[in-house]
Amino acid sequence: RARVMAEPTTAAMADSPRLVREAAERGDAAALQVQLAAGAAADVADKSGYTPLIVAAWGGHTAVVRLLLAHGADASAKTKSGTCALALAAWNGHAAVATLQVQNGAEVEAKGADGSTALLEAASNGHADVANVLLGSGASLAARDSNGNTALSLAAYGGHTSTVNLLLDHGADTSATNNHGETPMSRCSSEACKRSLANHGRWRRRGALVVWKELSPAA
User: Fold this and answer.
1) How many CB atoms lie within 10 A of CB 133?
2) HSE value, Cβ hemisphere, 13 Å, CA-based, for 12
3) Could you give the CA distance from residue 157 to residue 178 in angstroms, rounded to a whole number?
4) Domain that holds residue 136
5) Model pTM?
6) Coil, strand or helix: which one is 163?
7) Domain total of the chain
8) Is residue 78 classed as helix, strand or coil in its secondary structure?
9) What does the DSSP assignment read for 89-127?
10) Residues 118 and 202 reside in one and the same domain
11) Could you report the per-residue pLDDT of 57-103, keeping only the tens digit for each?
């Protein structure tokens, strides 16, 4: 006997945005699929502009992100404050989610309220795997946050050696200064990062002091 599917009630449809969001927050792809199959929209934002995709990207819920994108969710969605889903995935180190987003057209150079791009967010927290995804998708090494810091400067400040090495391998500028005249070397917080910068730039250590100075090309 053929199975007859009941039409969703008005009350059920009115409640669907909440159920979709809750499924996205939990990373519950099965529950989300039920809602989407019943006709729920994949891209309804809350009062702060958070869509289910933004919530899922923050949580690193890859299966949910994939499902939402397949149902038309905007990969470049932003909150009302300007935070984008890709930047949140980058900040939290969710490389698989970031990969899905860029594959589905997320704007790699989108900037948040503080001017940060996804690459800057990844570099700041030392997520080299995410940074690699973004660089492979054309992310600019010249991008700067509101303080003038580049990705290399942020990674050096955090002492994230793997990320520093990755950025250097992609040609990051070791001499770029921020709004306070600081270079990646002067902001560097670890000896390992300083060695990496020294090997790629025109830097030398003077005596036993932890003092680094950029030399002129003739030095």
Assistant:
1) 28
2) 11
3) 12
4) 108-208
5) 0.84
6) helix
7) 2
8) strand
9) HHHHT-HHHHHHHHHTT--TT---TTS--HHHHHHHTT-
10) yes
11) 999 999 999 999 999 999 999 999 999 999 999 999 999 999 999 99
